[in-house]
């Protein structure tokens, strides 16, 4: 069983990496980009039958800093 966890900074949290990407895109001539938010995708290879509740617990305890990040689980 496979799952993907998409982790992003919450709205309102400063994203310096996203701002650096936006600035670099502007320097390359892509002036229409008004904002960039950078996140991460974590791919998990799990034993069959692993519950979504277990994946949620993994996210809360380690994979995402829930104070400043939100996450979305995608079971494949």
TrEMBL record:
It comes from the Bacteria. Keywords: ATP-binding, Cytoplasm, Ligase, Nucleotide-binding, Purine biosynthesis. Signal peptide: none annotated. GO terms for molecular function: ATP binding; phosphoribosylformylglycinamidine synthase activity. Part of the FGAM synthase complex composed of 1 PurL, 1 PurQ and 2 PurS subunits. HAMAP family: PurS. Part of the phosphoribosylformylglycinamidine synthase complex involved in the purines biosynthetic pathway. Catalyzes the ATP-dependent conversion of formylglycinamide ribonucleotide (FGAR) and glutamine to yield formylglycinamidine ribonucleotide (FGAM) and glutamate. The FGAM synthase complex is composed of three subunits. PurQ produces an ammonia molecule by converting glutamine to glutamate. PurL transfers the ammonia molecule to FGAR to form FGAM in an ATP-dependent manner. This is Phosphoribosylformylglycinamidine synthase subunit PurS. It comes from Roseivivax lentus. The gene is purS.
């Amino acid at each position: 069983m496979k799952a993907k966890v998409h982790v992003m900074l919450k709205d309102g949290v400063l994203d310096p990496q996203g701002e650096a990407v936006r600035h670099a895109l502007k320097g390359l001539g892509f002036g229409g980009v008004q904002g960039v938010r950078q996140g991460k995708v974590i791919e998990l290879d799990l034993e069959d039958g692993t519950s979504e509740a277990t994946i949620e617990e993994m996210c809360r305890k380690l994979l995402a800093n829930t104070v400043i990040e939100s996450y979305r689980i995608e079971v494949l």
